[in-house]
Amino acid sequence: MSEQERSAGSGRLVTGIAWVVLLLGLWLWGREATDVREGVSRPATGDMAAAGRPPDVQLPPARRPLGEALPQRLDIPELGVQAPVVARGLDDEGAVEPPPFDQPGTVGWYAAGVTPGAAGTALMVGHVDTETRPAVFHRISTLEPGETIRVVRDDGGVAEFTVDDIQVLTRDGFDARQAYGPRSPGRAELRLITCGGAFDEASDSYTANVVVSAYLTGTGP
């Protein structure tokens, strides 16, 4: 793949999530307060999970938050995802750095925020596609409430999260608290974010973002 292709693809994700950077203060506040395009080209926006959630879905109770430990791998059994996690910061423009574009199977964790499993909202971002193929978060919009996300941590344990909603949010009229604020004070929560909506060829970016919300419900070895 050429350098030009890598730059273009990286630009799609950066453009798609750069607006989220304005919310970094909110993520940190949450921590303190709680001390392949067709895959995601959905024109609808809002709380997709609530709209299609069967009335008899019973979500498990939240588990008490864990101590701090760095994430090493993200597993989504329903999607067959087992992805290494890399710590990411901010780029020169103040945007969260996505994983390297030549590593489309890697997930980025915002290292200045909450560690997954600790109290507050931990943030992970990933590519939805490259110029030629799907990437690690290509199908996260298909997750459903009650399904499991696991984060392997460097303390030897596994933080197990249960999905409680999936949203596709446009950048226009975006509600920061709805997307990234803690859903329930004191819980350990997780957000997975990738590009969504439709791909706009003119701006070389997606029109929305997919936001998967989950909360800690268990642990494993």
UniProtKB/TrEMBL annotation:
Region of interest called Disordered, as start-end residue ranges on this chain: 40-64
Keywords: Hydrolase, Membrane, Transmembrane, Transmembrane helix
Taxonomic superkingdom: Bacteria
Membrane-traversing stretches: 12-30
NCBIfam families associated with the record: class_F_sortase
Protein name per its UniProtKB record: Class F sortase
Organism: Streptomyces viridiviolaceus
Lineage: Bacteria, Bacillati, Actinomycetota, Actinomycetes, Kitasatosporales
